[in-house]
Q: What sequence folds into this?
């Protein structure tokens, strides 16, 4: 029996980080600390047809990010139809 679907969950965890600021008259100085974050992406693929693949997914499930230290795209949903030959 052939399976016509796949489910994928991808994740990454990044610990807290310290940021520095460059100054022209001396060594870098402390600029701030960013909190840890976890990114998860979820995807469902369906390959029932010989002529096309269909996928639906959510990127950044937990809606992580902040404009100061982590400028990443907010939670995003997508639908993908890819022609196959």
A:
């Amino acid at each position: 029996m052939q399976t016509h679907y796949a489910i994928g969950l991808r994740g990454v965890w990044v610990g807290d980080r310290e940021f520095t600021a460059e100054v022209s008259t001396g060594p870098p100085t402390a600029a701030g600390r960013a909190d840890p974050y976890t990114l998860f992406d979820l995807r469902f693929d369906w390959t029932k047809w010989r002529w096309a693949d269909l996928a639906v997914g959510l990127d950044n499930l937990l809606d992580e990010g902040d404009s100061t230290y982590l400028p990443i795209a907010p939670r995003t949903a997508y639908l993908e139809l890819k022609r196959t030959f």
About this structure: The longest strand covers residues 5-14.
